[in-house]
Each structure stands twice: as C-alpha cells, then as structure tokens.
Amino acid sequence: MAVTDANGRSHTPEWDASWRCPTWRELFHKRLNDLGLIDRTIVRSVGALALPGLVAVRGLEHVRPEADPFVLALNHATRFEAVALPVLLVYHRSGRRVHFLADWNFQMIPGIGLLYRRSGAIVVTRKSARPRFLNVLKPLYAHKQSSHARALAHLGAGRSVGIFPEGTVNRDPARLLRGRIGAARLSLEAGVPVVPGGIRDVSGDALRPRLELAFGPPLHPPQRTAGADVRAWHGTIMTEIARLSGKSWEPLRQEPRHGTA
Fold this sequence. Notes:
Elements: E1 3-4, E2 10-11, H1 13-16, H2 24-29, H3 37-50, E3 54-58, E4 71-74, H4 81-92, E5 99-103, H5 112-119, E6 122-124, H6 138-141, H7 147-156, E7 161-163, H8 182-190, E8 194-201, E9 211-215, H9 227-245
Parallel strand pairs: 3-9, 4-7, 4-8, 5-6, 5-7
Antiparallel strand pairs: 1-2, 8-9
Helix pairs in contact: 3-4, 7-8, 8-9
C-alpha cells in the first residue's frame, strides 16, 4: 500500500530500504569502467537530473553485471523511464550497459537522439512517424539487420538487452497491454533468462512523474521453442510484470499489439 511521507511523496514503504538516490558527489565519483570520458559525463549529468525521479527501487541484485546476459522486460508507464532507467542501470552496473530496443521516432528529438546513440540503443523502425511526413527520414535510421537479429547478437556476445513488451506508453493504472512476444522469442532463441520489471508512476503527473521500480528474480525459459511455447512463455513474463507493477494482465483479442491511442 502506498503512503505519503513528510515531503508529500507517495511510496511503498518496504521498497525504500534498498534504495537511496546517489548524491551529486557520488554520481561524479562513481567508477564507470566500461565508459569513455564523453559517456561518463553524459551518465553523470543526466543522472543528476533523472535519478531523483525514482522514489523507490528494489531488486537491483537481479540486474548486476555478473548476471549478464539476460533480457530485461518491463511495463512502459511513462516516457521518463526511457531516460532514467538506462542511466540507473549504467550507474549501478559500474558503466556496463543494458541495450534497450528503442523507437526510431525519438532519434529525431535533439538531445534524446544523442542519448539513444551513446547508450547503444537498438533502434526499431517498425512504427510510423508522427506526423507521417517525417517517414521520409526513416531510411536514415534503418539498419541492414533486423532489431531482433541485433538483439540476439548482443545476447550472444554476453551483453544484456532491455525491452518494453507493451510497445508503447500505457498510462492505464490497472491493466497492462497484451504486448509483443519479442522478449519471449529472444529469451528462448538465445537460451537466456528474462528479468521482469515493474514500474509504477506514483505522481499522477505526466509532466513530472515519480516512479517506483522493482526488478524481479530471473525467469528461466523452457527448452522448446514451438509457436505455442513462445506464446505461453510470453504469458508467464507478462504475468510477472503485472505482479511487479501492481497491474493485471489478460490478453484481449480486440486489442491492437501496440495498444490503443
């Protein structure tokens, strides 16, 4: 149950024991061994702005570098976590990245595009641009390999991959979208576990979200990879994401794969 602290912030009390937002001094003295000077500067600068928006985090032991490779699969509550989450992971993993699949549309936003490129994001060009005339720029962000093939290559090289299976921001406080099966496919084909994650926006403010974040224990995939097994494995993953995010999950036949507008 969420409560309100002395500063008026809503949070789940049992989560706070494992999380303290790093101070400015800690951010700028943290050893980030896998990053060059430019990337260290970006992580520390963005972290100083973004990490205070994470009011509670638990389960960081499940995403430690020693656990690589894995597929990190989370619900998508706000756009904010697309920036805050990679920074949190790089900071706590001493500079080692988790490579997130990211929509190509955001590459066109000044600043955000730079963050995506420097983070090693796997750009996905499946969606149409908004407004549509910007689709003329899509070939500039396309890759000769599919995003699935690139993600498999990362996993094969021992690097972890992050996915938001819902495929779009879902602000429904009670229910997850049915989601895409990409995380399940990657896990089965690469033979790596899925680390589920749940994100809760406790602010009620789309412009200034405040998030609770929980990483769950790894889920180990079954051996078979037939189509029915992929769907069942997807259901297992989404059910655990639902538990961690405090939502329900039930795939609805009429729901588009990317959810509703």
